Give the backbone structure.
Amino acid sequence: MERQLPRSSPADDRPVPTVTGSAESIAGSWSAAAGSVSDGRMHCLIVEDEETIVEFLRTGLTYEGHRTTVAADGEAALRLAQEQTFDLVILDVMLPGIDGLTVCRRLRGSSDVPIIVLTARKEVADRVAGLDAGADDYLTKPFSFAELLARMRAVLRRRGQALEADVLTRGDLSLDLERHTARLDGRPLDLTPIEFALLALFMRHPHRVFTRETLLHRVWGEDHSGAVKVVDVHMSRLRQKIGEDHRGMIRTIYGIGYELREE
Ligand code: CA
């Protein structure tokens, strides 16, 4: 895929190159997306100047079937918001030029688009400032993609929209994304948050082979520097909990990664 990142010079008033992308359809007979965000796919505006975070967000959102447009500074974000319609804005507070909170206030002045603010700071005051500026929610860096999806779900839910169905089901396995509970053959599965996030990712993308690196990136987060071995450890525990009756459910692709199979 050809990728081009916007320049980050706030003084440059030439048109900012934008990046759009979309993933292949979310396959199969898995629970379909529901609600008023058309078919569950959104056009997301990412406002961030750090390229690693932009790539992390773009890759994850594209993978989930959403379309993304990137603005590397506040001016570009405000201009794009006037020119196009977005279903969600992911807005970093620390931007060159106009800061994220000011961008948030200005966006709010003309639009009720859902806004999730990214902050690198842990101070309560900064989070409050984000919400005061009109943001729907915030995420503190570093965050995992699973956390972002959870915030997106929550934000859209509060607005009476749905990002996807509340419960992912396949055969005898079901995951309640709202309550964070899992059931297999009618019995509850006691999963850790990591195991739950792994299983949710597999259930959203059946028959897709995930490399360990991708799982590490998607479930643990964009700045995770751990060894991919940690993925094997958690996958092994997840398999134990799923049990012998369903041992074929998660398949190891040797040397590559894992896949969720129809049994
Ligand atoms: Ca930034």
About this structure: The radius of gyration is 19 Å. The first strand starts at residue 43 and ends at 47. The domain at 167-260 is CATH 1.10.10.10 (Arc Repressor Mutant, subunit A). Residues 1-36 have pLDDT under 50 and may be disordered.
